[in-house]
Amino acid sequence: MNKMGISTDPALLDVELPHTLIESPSVSTFMPEEEASICPLLSSNTNGSTTPMTFSHPLTPCIDNDNDSNTSANLCNEDGKVETSSSSGSSSGIGMSVPDATSTTLFNKHSYKHLQNNNSSTQDANGHGPNGNLQLGKDTPSFVSWNWPLIRKCTFFVFMSSLLAMCAVVVAMIVTLPRVCNPKTMWYRGSVFYEIFPASFQDSDNDGIGDLRGVVKRLDYIKSLGVSAVRLNSIFPTSHYPEDFNHIASLMEVSKVLGNLGEVQQLSQSLHARNMSLILDLPLYPFIKELGKSEGASLIKVLASTASNTSDTEDTTTTTARPIITVNLITMALQHWIKYGVNGFYIKGLEHFPDLEDIEYHLAEWKDILGNERVLIISEEVLQRLNKAQKSAALQHIDLVDVYLNVFNGTIYMEERLNDLLNSDIAPKDPGVWIHWSLGSVDKPRMAREGVSSNFSITATLMQLMLPGTPSIFYGDEIGLRAVDDHLKEHNETKHLHHLSTMQWPLNFTQQFTTRETLPWLPKSSGTSFDDYTLVSRMIALRDRSPSIYKNAICKGDTVLPNTAIRRSGDDILIVERIYPRRNTFVSVSNFGQIRVTLDMTSKFYSGIVMLHGNNDKIYFSDFQIGPTESIIVRLDK
User: Fold this and answer.
1) I need a surface site. Which of 39, 93, 251, 527 has the fewest CB within 10 A?
2) Residue 575 contacts residue 585 (beta carbons within 8 Å)
3) Secondary structure class of 532 (helix, strand, coil)
4) pTM above 0.85, yes or no
């Protein structure tokens, strides 16, 4: 029986096999036909013939095939067992134990019948349920029947989508990151203002006098210059505007020549849409003859505010001390113009009041009305009239101090004047009051005038834009606009207004100050250079991105260090050096004289790159040449 794969170990069969059966399993050694039917290895057909029965090894899975379904039924019967049988009437016998149903089904991949649901009766030929899935028993965990292919697809889709989203966020963050990380300041600190006399800027209704709608039409030009705020000089009604613009009749109205309150609001909205602010001059004197007493001088208004304490259910009360607002024309005017979108005020004429006893309290009231986001400006001349205690108190409520720098007094004067200011009570510090630099204004002569080159205006403006603080450019100075030239003395009645010459625009502009058919209210000036406009706009852009220039000091904890050095060379050369930690150092060299100069400044500087002209030319200070009325801006080599 070795050929049949049946063990002949006597210990297994527990019988003694005949020697002949072991040696030669021939047909002569088998039992007679009538007894062979009881042998578990043979089956008897109804016709009396015997056929060998298919044998399944205990470790062989039972596969249901159509050809041997009867045999598999015998071997894979769920309840039946083949018992050990022996032939009591024969000298030889075979005893085998057929594997029971449990051991057989254990190795049959299609016969996990103990896991089947008794209520399910539909099954295909391979043992699958009606849905092609394996029939599960009631004790099987529910996750076995989940749609795992779909779950894998969804999980992969979610993972890839999340990965792509994270990559997109990272790319967006990289793209939107600023190129440099510069220190921030308040919007009015270190930025550039543009001062306009509206009657001379742009005429929109062809009456020969500029107006507010004309200013709105030119905002794109102002925006391209790079300034952050427009400062309007006197817009208030007078008996004969604009000739007597200083003698106003109201602080809450607009001259009808210029427009109306709605157009002021339109101007402020248009400026805000371009990320610029509106500052208004309030000329108090001589409209207001005396400042008067302040109710805040002796009383303090305490406002109580209740804040919820999140740590428990009790409420805590905090108090903030604020001054009482004195009801007068000034406070009413401030509150009035804030409603129309004004972002700051220059309170002019305070230096002319005979009594400034309560000035620090008035300033506290005005600043309280404006808040932290609006700017309050006063003149340096006001501070010069105050005692030390008053000045110290007043500076706590002022944002900018207007300082006029007369560039016609020579470089000796300018060096001394600038160094004195940078070491005075209004010395640069952050936080603290900042200097508002003015080289021209409605009550000061224009830089480009008779006997003075137009380049002088550009030279002074570029030097001004290098100073620490907030420079203010008077309209037209960026193009070297000249004062009215009346050498024939035909307009002596308006001589005091000749510095307010009407604005000129490039010839490729579709509209000039007014139409050709209309005469402007002042004679047209001559001599402008629109190429200088490019230099000024580039200088403002350089200032905006360079902390060395727009910051007025170096602050390290409680220590404030200067970042500006003012020097001169000879009688005509003024040098301004601006520094900041871990940033480029810039130097401006300005020649206010009328001759070309060659300098050797190797004791201070070695070399650098010339800015503003777009060529990035290398320059060495051992042989530094500068022409008459010229300013050169250099970025020093590190």
Assistant:
1) 527
2) no
3) helix
4) no
